[in-house]
Design a protein that fits this description.
The complex is a heterodimer. Helices cover about 0% and strands about 60% of the residues of chain A. Chain A is built from no helices and eleven strands. Chain B is mainly β. Helices cover about 0% and strands about 55% of the residues of chain B. Chain B is built from no helices and eleven strands. In chain B, strand 5 and strand 6 form a beta hairpin. Chain B is globular, with a radius of gyration of 13 Å. The chains are: A mainly beta, B mainly beta. At the A-B interface, strand 4 and strand 5 of A face strand 5, strand 9 and strand 10 of B.
Chain lengths: ~110, ~110
């Protein structure tokens, strides 16, 4: 069984400030971990993924995430927020054995203030 | 490569009708999954098709069905629509562990 918890349904930051979106997972087997972004009335776009290579993963748009097995976490960060980063962010986990169907978190809405 | 495409993008139906949504995966991807997204329930997995066979199924009633064709294109059908079926329906295709999503079909049931 696998599950994902995203802490905070809404995160508000000022433009230029650090973005930190939290994700904790549980998985009985080594996981694959993903962050997706969704803009209004659009599908989910892959930001980055962890597939058991480097624990620090760099993605698109300046985002990165670090896999910490001991903390079962995969938090998403960006050093400096832009107004265009305002969107819904989803963390997801899937298993390395058998079907890859991911389990998604409930999402975190990132609000960026000028 | 072209991304995942979904048609139609928007749809309005009335209760009791049925609807068919279409999804064309990324070329070479054989797995197609469908999700329902609503504000209250978030992203919920409907089913996955691989090589024309349903490989995984979520916890939805039998009114929700799907199929996949030999070219990997997939359709999902919802019969006897209910107001609660109003949602964004997302299709995702994959080659392995990573799913790539289409823009979704916004269904409104009146």
């Amino acid at each position: 069984a696998q599950s994902v918890t995203q802490l905070g349904s809404h995160v508000s930051v000022s433009e230029g400030a650090l973005v930190l979106l939290r994700c904790n997972y549980s998985s009985s087997v080594p996981p694959y971990l993903f962050w997706y972004v969704q803009y209004p009335n659009q599908g989910l776009q892959l930001l980055l993924k962890y597939t058991s290579a480097a624990t620090l993963v760099k993605g698109i748009n300046g985002f990165e995430a670090e896999f910490k097995k001991s903390e079962t976490s995969f938090h998403l960060t960006k050093p400096s927020a832009h107004m265009s980063d305002a969107a819904e962010y989803f963390c997801a986990v899937s298993s390395s054995g058998g079907s890859y169907i991911p389990t998604f978190g409930r999402g975190t809405s990132l609000i960026v203030h000028p | 490569k072209a991304g995942v495409t979904q048609t139609p993008r928007y749809l309005i139906k009335t209760r009791g009708q049925q609807v068919t949504l279409s999804c064309s995966p990324i070329s070479g991807h054989r797995s197609v999954s469908w999700y329902q997204q609503t504000p209250g329930q978030g992203l919920q997995f409907l089913f996955e098709y691989f090589s024309e066979t349903q490989r995984n199924k979520g916890n939805f009633p039998g009114r929700f069905s799907g199929r996949q064709f030999s070219n990997s294109r997939s359709e999902m059908n919802v019969s006897t629509l209910e107001l609660g079926d109003s949602a964004l329906y997302l299709c995702a295709s994959s080659l392995a562990e990573t799913q790539y999503f289409g823009p979704g079909t916004r269904l409104l049931v009146l």
